[in-house]
């Protein structure tokens, strides 16, 4: 079993899609190890998105991710990091495969419903940032 870090973003939380997304998590064989509803501070957002600090949309991302509550989760499954990325679909919901979370619940490349760690290194870093007491 592997852990990954997942997040239901403020757009999906405010549209009341959390339950549908959590249902997909469970129906696709992930165990929910931890789950919290939180607000991110600007500082927390800067830490989460540190790898994107030089991208042109950085400030927009920070404003969006701090705009409302989000749901953070630790998910466990065999090969969880890749499996969760596959279930998310492409970053741009209009390019995400049918049946993926972003295709079903995302509305734009910025408001794309959910997040998932993209590598073991980033998963370790994101899990440590949000769930420092884990393991
Ligand atoms: N993003 C954006 N505009 C872009 C590219 C990305 O607003 O042109 C946002 C989007 O919400 C994405 C996040 O920045 O989920 C992180 O980008 P990344 O390329 O890491 O995509 P992801 O790993 O989330 O698929
Ligand atoms: Mg990414």
TrEMBL record:
Q: Which cofactor does it need?
A: Mg(2+)
- Entry-linked InterPro entries: NDK-like_dom, NDK-like_dom_sf, Nucleoside_diP_kinase, Nucleoside_diP_kinase_AS
GO CC: one term?
Answer: cytoplasm
Give a single Pfam family match. NDK
| Residue span, Nucleoside diphosphate kinase-like domain | 1-134
Judged by the first EC level, this protein's enzyme class is transferase
Q: Which UniProt keywords apply?
A: ATP-binding, Cytoplasm, Kinase, Magnesium, Metal-binding, Nucleotide metabolism, Nucleotide-binding, Phosphoprotein, Transferase
Please provide the Gene Ontology terms (biological process) for this protein.
CTP biosynthetic process; GTP biosynthetic process; UTP biosynthetic process
Where does the record place it?
Cytoplasm
Q: Which GO terms describe its molecular function?
A: ATP binding; metal ion binding; nucleoside diphosphate kinase activity
* Top-level taxon in the UniProt lineage: Bacteria
Question: EC number(s) on record?
Answer: 2.7.4.6
Q: What is its main location?
A: cytoplasm
Q: Which residues form the active site?
A: 115 (pros-phosphohistidine intermediate)
Q: How does it assemble?
A: Homotetramer.
State the PANTHER family in the record. Answer: NUCLEOSIDE DIPHOSPHATE KINASE, NUCLEOSIDE DIPHOSPHATE KINASE DDB_G0292928-RELATED
Family note: Belongs to the NDK family.
**Any idea what job this protein has?**
Major role in the synthesis of nucleoside triphosphates other than ATP. The ATP gamma phosphate is transferred to the NDP beta phosphate via a ping-pong mechanism, using a phosphorylated active-site intermediate.
Report what the protein is called: Nucleoside diphosphate kinase
Q: Which organism is it from?
A: candidate division TM6 bacterium JCVI TM6SC1
Q: Which gene underlies this protein?
A: ndk
């Amino acid at each position: 079993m592997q852990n990954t870090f997942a997040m239901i973003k403020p757009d999906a939380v405010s549209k009341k899609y959390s339950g549908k997304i959590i249902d997909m998590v469970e129906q696709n064989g992930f165990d929910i190890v931890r789950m919290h509803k939180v607000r991110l501070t600007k500082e927390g957002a800067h830490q989460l998105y540190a790898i994107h600090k030089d991208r042109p949309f950085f400030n927009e991302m920070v404003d969006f991710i701090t705009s409302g509550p989000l749901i953070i989760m630790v998910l466990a499954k065999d090969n969880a990091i890749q499996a969760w990325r596959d279930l998310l679909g492409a970053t741009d919901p209009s390019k995400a495969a049918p049946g993926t979370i972003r295709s079903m619940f995302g509305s734009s490349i910025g408001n794309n419903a959910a997040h998932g760690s993209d590598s073991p290194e980033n998963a370790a870093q994101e899990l440590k940032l949000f769930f420092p007491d884990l393991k």
